[in-house]
Amino acid sequence: MAGIKQPILDIMSKLTGVLSLQYIRIWNNQVDYEKSGELYNFPKPAAFVETQPGIMWDTLALGLSSADLIFRIHLVTECYDAQNGTFEQDLAVFDLRDQVIEALQLYAPTGCSPMTKILEEQDYEHDNIYHYTIDFAVNFIDTKGSPLDPDSGKFITKDPPTGLQVQVNVEDNIPGVENNMLFPHPGYKPYIPDNSDRRYFMPQHPKLR
Predict the structure, then answer these.
(1) From CA 152, how far away is CA 102, in angstroms rounded?
(2) How far apart are CA 73 and CA 27, in angstroms?
(3) H or E element that contains 116
């Protein structure tokens, strides 16, 4: 359990396993800033993690809150003519797309349910810079503000002692137990009705007598 920062860091850490990525950061509209000259040229292929705005929270018990979040992964590649007949076709971005989905699909960041891919958008008006996005949905439980939060110091969790052995002694000579039946006192015999005792049997239909 954690706040919203930890799942973002977990996703960025998971993306470091995609070896073709050279740059991983939180999304801040870097593509447009780079094109306008307001930002340095960042290494590519790059991945940026965005938490979609407009989060609606549900209140749980003890100050916990829950929300359905969408993490958008921005993939940015740079492609020129590969001299192989694929001019103006950046096919490498689809290889990167497959690698990122393989890394993140069903991955569960801290406090989140497994990530599920729900939306992809291609770049249909690109130059040498291609901008591809993939959306993943999760359910997230935020523990901040709750006494259950590990950082609050209000609750202490402790592992149970190890090496604990439990010995059970079974007593098979209990007074009053005979043939797996427990009687209130010695000499008590249960009453077992027979067919002559009408108190324990339903009256028969006259035609069946």
Answers:
(1) 35
(2) 8
(3) strand 116-121
**DSSP codes of every residue in 2-46:** B-THHHHHHHHHHHTT-TT--EEEE-SSHHHHHHTTSS----SSE
Q: What is the pLDDT of residues 2-40, one digit of tens each?
A: 789 999 999 999 999 999 999 999 999 999 998 888 888
Domain of residue 147 covers 5-152
Give the β-pairing of 46-51 and 23-26.
Answer: parallel
Segment holding 104, helix H or strand E: helix 92-104
Domain count, the chain: 1
Give dist(CA 33, CA 41) in Å, integer. Answer: 9
C-alpha closest to that of 109 among 7, 4, 26, 14: 7
Largest CA distance in the chain: 105
Which pLDDT tens digit goes with each residue over 174-206?
565 555 555 555 665 666 666 655 554 455 555
**For residues 6 and 37, what is the distance between their CA atoms, to the nearest angstrom?**
32
DSSP 186: T
CATH at 75: 3.30.2000.10
Tell me, yes or no, whether 196 lies in a domain: no
- How far apart are alpha carbons 176 and 189 in whole angstroms? 11
Host H or E run for residue 117: strand 116-121
